[in-house]
Every structure is written in structure tokens, then in C-alpha cells.
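Input C-alpha cells:
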């Protein structure tokens, strides 16, 4: 008897779908690639042909230059060899997708990265019933339970309003997190200009081009200190403590990341205002998703595999860890 999912071959540099002769999220240039989303540990340049959502292809082109891209809309099903391939929203960042693979009566979902929280910058996660669910586990420990997004944004705004002679400098990953923070601020009524580091400009412009309204954004470089007082500045985490940030008016250093749940991480980065805001599922969202989907098997990757594998096994769900090459987004 054939083993469930034996037509999928997880290798360190990606997942090979044998009957379609195609790779999912390969970490090195490949003849044919399916890409879940635009973060660098899932999307890279140099593929001979790549299938992804239009938004992910646009992100890849912004980062890597022209792509031999084939856009796939959410809900669209392609036939590749003997495999049916469907892209479904993952709720991670703009354009992010789960990839449903159907072959020989089996359904396998490669979820990529995902979250279950509402996000005004991307389509929400859609659960898909399947036989095998391949899940990330970035925050796959019970200690990781993210607070309400609105409470963290309110904390940011309270610090801003309490310190009119300072600015709040928020470290946020350039793709997805920065735009989400900006949009969440707008949705909480913050209509004032937001200043951004130059490294944010291209992707913020792309988000606007793709229909995400970010309000008034002003490049922070070269602006007099007096003008930035009482405002929010968004920058890559690497800029929080470098020479660039010293030009700002006594900044309150903040960091938007799921890792801010770990106090030592905030201390290491000299973060005065930790904002627990993640684009990955927390422990409850991971386990609730598995309960909802009810797969026969769970394959776990990119994170704390052991705890989630154990959780599955105690509920009679077959589970195993995959040794895929990748890295946790340090600045999630």
C-alpha cells in the first residue's frame, strides 16, 4: 500500500512535488517553482519559471528584478502533470498563499507562513480540509500567546501622546509588518503623517499601488528634528540603534514583533516599548487550526517543531518534523 503523501519529497532546500515536477518554496534557483509568499526564506530570484499570486510576483520583482512569472489568483486551480494545484489565502502578508496539492485522491496543503488574526493589508486565512497539512511552527510553544492587536497599537499611541517632544521609532520588518503597523494606526484614527526609513519606501509604494491605503508617508532622512517631534517613525529593526536613528528627536525605541513576548529579546535590542505584534500564528492559533482542519497527518517545519509534534501525537494525529532549510524571521 502506498504511503500517504509519498509523492511529495521534502528536501532541505524545498518541497519537491514529483508527479508535477515542481518545487514549493525552493531556497535555490529551480526550473519550476511554486512560491507561497514574498519573504526571502520562501521566495528568491533566479527560477526559470515561477507560479505565485500576482501580489507575490510583484513583490519578487521589486526585490529581485524581472521574473518568469505566471500569476495565479486565489481559488484558481491549475493542472500540473497529474497534480491539481490551487492557491488559497494564508493571511500572512499581502499575496501570501497556502498551496493545495491534489493527486491520487489525496489532498496536501503546504501552508507556508500564516496567521489567523485580522490584518487590513492582506486576505484572511482560509482553512482547507486535507489529508496532510504542512505547517510552520515559528511560535510553536505554549508560552507564545499574542495579545490583541488593537491593545498593542493603543500602547504605541499612548506613548506618542504622552511624549510630545519625542518621537516613537518603531522597528518593523520591511515586508508586511511595516505596512500592517501603518494601516493599523490609520484604522485607530491616527491620520497624521508617518515618517519612514528609506529602506521602507519601495515596498510601501508597492502596497499602495496594489490597493492598500497607507495614508501620508514622508521620508525621514534629512528632515529637521523639530518636524519629527510628536510623530511616529517606521524603520527596519537594524536601524533602531545605528547612526541613522541618532538624527531623531530623543526617540522612544519600539519594536513590533512576536518575539517581544521574550523579555530578553527586547533587552538585547534596547527596546523601550516592546509591541507584541506578529504575522505568524501563535500557539493557540496553530493548535486551533489543526483542530479545525483535522488532517490525517501534520508535517511541521520552521520553528519549534517538537512541541507541536507532541501536541499532535497526544491527540492521535500522526506528525513529524521536516528538516527544511529556512530561518525564523528574527524581526517578525
Amino acid at each position: 500500500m502506498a504511503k500517504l503523501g509519498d509523492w511529495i519529497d521534502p528536501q532541505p532546500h524545498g518541497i519537491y512535488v514529483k508527479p508535477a515536477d515542481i518545487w514549493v518554496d525552493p531556497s535555490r534557483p529551480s526550473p519550476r517553482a511554486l512560491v507561497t509568499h514574498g519573504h526571502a526564506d520562501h521566495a528568491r530570484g533566479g527560477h526559470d519559471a515561477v507560479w505565485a499570486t500576482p501580489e507575490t510576483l510583484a513583490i519578487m520583482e521589486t526585490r529581485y528584478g524581472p521574473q518568469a512569472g505566471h500569476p495565479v489568483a486565489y481559488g484558481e486551480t491549475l493542472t500540473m502533470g497529474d497534480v491539481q494545484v490551487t492557491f488559497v489565502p494564508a493571511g500572512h502578508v499581502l499575496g501570501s498563499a497556502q498551496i493545495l496539492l491534489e493527486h491520487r485522491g489525496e489532498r496536501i496543503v503546504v501552508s507556508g507562513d500564516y496567521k489567523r488574526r485580522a490584518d487590513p493589508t492582506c486576505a484572511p486565512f482560509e482553512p482547507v480540509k486535507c489529508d496532510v497539512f504542512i505547517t510552520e511552527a515559528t511560535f510553536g510553544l505554549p508560552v507564545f500567546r499574542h495579545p490583541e492587536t488593537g491593545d498593542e497599537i493603543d500602547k504605541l499611541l499612548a506613548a506618542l501622546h504622552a511624549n510630545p517632544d519625542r518621537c516613537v521609532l518603531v522597528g518593523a520588518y520591511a515586508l508586511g509588518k511595516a505596512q500592517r503597523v501603518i494601516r493599523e494606526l490609520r484604522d485607530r484614527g491616527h491620520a497624521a503623517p508617518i515618517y519612514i526609513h528609506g529602506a521602507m519606501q519601495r515596498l510601501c509604494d508597492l502596497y499602495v499601488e496594489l490597493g492598500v491605503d497607507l495614508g501620508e508617508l514622508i521620508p525621514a532622512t534629512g528632515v529637521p528634528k523639530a518636524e519629527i517631534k510628536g510623530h511616529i517613525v517606521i524603520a527596519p529593526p537594524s536601524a533602531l540603534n545605528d547612526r541613522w536613528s541618532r538624527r531623531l528627536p530623543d526617540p522612544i525605541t519600539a519594536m513590533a514583533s512576536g518575539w517581544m513576548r521574550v523579555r530578553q529579546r527586547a533587552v538585547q535590542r534596547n527596546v523601550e516599548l516592546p509591541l507584541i505584534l506578529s504575522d505568524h500564528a501563535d500557539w493557540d492559533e496553530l493548535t486551533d487550526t489543526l483542530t479545525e482542519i483535522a488532517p490525517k497527518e501534520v508535517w511541521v517545519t520552521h520553528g519549534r517543531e517538537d512541541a507541536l509534534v507532541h501536541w499532535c501525537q497526544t491527540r492521535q494525529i500522526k506528525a513529524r518534523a521536516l528538516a527544511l532549510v529556512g530561518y525564523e524571521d528574527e524581526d517578525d
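The domain at 8-143+280-321 is CATH 3.60.15.10 (Metallo-beta-lactamase; Chain A). The first strand starts at residue 8 and ends at 11.
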